[in-house]
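Researcher: Here's a chain I'd like modeled. Treat it as a single chain, no partners, no ligands.
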Amino acid sequence: MTAEQIKKQESELAAKVMDLSIGKLLLRYHYFSLALCRLAISQLPGKMMTDGKSLCYDAQFILERYKLSDTMPVHDILHSVLHNLFRHWNIGKVKPSLWDAACDIAVEALICNIAPDLEIEQDADKRKKIIRELSSQVKPLTAEKLYAYFSRQQLSEQTAQEYIQLFSVDEHRLWHKNNDERELEPEEQLPTMPVSECDEQSQQTEQGSNEQQGSDSEKKEQCEENQSEQRSNGDAESSHSDSIEKWLDEQSKAKQKELEDSWKQIAKQVQSELEAFGRSDDPAKLTLVDILEHIGREKTDYRAFLRRFAVQGEVMKSDLDAFDVNFYCYGLKLYGDVALIEPPEYKEVKRIKDLVIAIDTSASVGRETVRAFVRKTYSILKTEESFFSRINIHILQCDIRIQDIAVMTCEQELERYIDALELKGFGGTDFRPVFEYIEEQRAQGKLSELKGMIYFTDGLGTFPEKAPDYETAFVFLQGDYEKDQKPEVPPWAVRIMLDEGDVLDV
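Model: Modeled as a single isolated chain. Structure tokens:
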């Protein structure tokens, strides 16, 4: 047999192994059928990989796994299906090694629960020991919570790679493809007249007669005009290229959102089927239901919430919405380069001017989590262009009394404060001093345009009895509470529940 015939035979045999393994998986866990139907099965060099759209496998890899045990391919397919149900490929800016380790550990821990007979025997004891240790620290054991835990613990790259070596089954390179830094391309060379030709003309001008000098001068001017025109065309092409790139980026985001919504719906249907037809006393199925419920919980749109604190104001920016382009074009048509009307130089926008961020620095609140929350809040406000040129942001640290007050009037001051943030306090918790401080500042006219206040806390403190006349939001971490438990807040306050992954940009 030729090498090509051998390769074709391997491909056909691997396809049969995949069909057989999928059949075995669905025979035992029929509720995964919808998830498998969503994936296009295809062959691709490597190991096994998935990105929410397809499940790719390497023929030699599958055959080698099947040779070791006929249950290994079944295990590998289940591993990839769970990655999709939990949407592990839908990631933000994360450290790849930590995220890969967290995802593989979370999936393998669940497989140990729902299908212990599919577990790979090699290094099984090591994996079980690591899962037990992490389960005691992270509840529930999801990829997002594991990644947050690894980040807090500053897990070393070596340990992360050891985890990947132990728990990895498939490749994750398709996940990080869109997050890798693009290679810098060489600058596009504009088509201009060679410098040597211009230099040659200059030399002829010095050596020739006055008539020749005039002719060469005209050539030189023509050369410069051509260069200017070519640069202008190059700028236009660059602008057009940027527009196309922006459009393609928007289309890519829209497709990613559609894919995410599709898998959210699949996860909900799997959860519903488990709840309706699964045995209520089966701890394995209950574990899967709990994790699907946790993953599928609607997250608070913290970005949208922060916009509620904006006030109306003017910024020096062309207001194209209030600009009538017809008069502008009519003026150019009549006078060539004179417009009858120009866009307004100032634009009315809604941005944040006065804001109070209170931080609960009692002993029950983690220091690293607090730092991450402040950075997250500032990062959102900065990227959303939420600030006026002059701002008035008060950041208060408070336990039973106010321990530190910082007032920022510009973005640079806010950046410096966050970079050098040192927490103070770590006593009990009393929310009232912050509200008293705000009233004093308003009485002095220093927070006259305050729309709201954000209080990051664990909720274990004394609230004011009287409702303030500005919006107040108490921000809590979901991981500090049980599944059906919610922290108590007064009727006039807004409760915001965030996952650690939201704070740590997962």
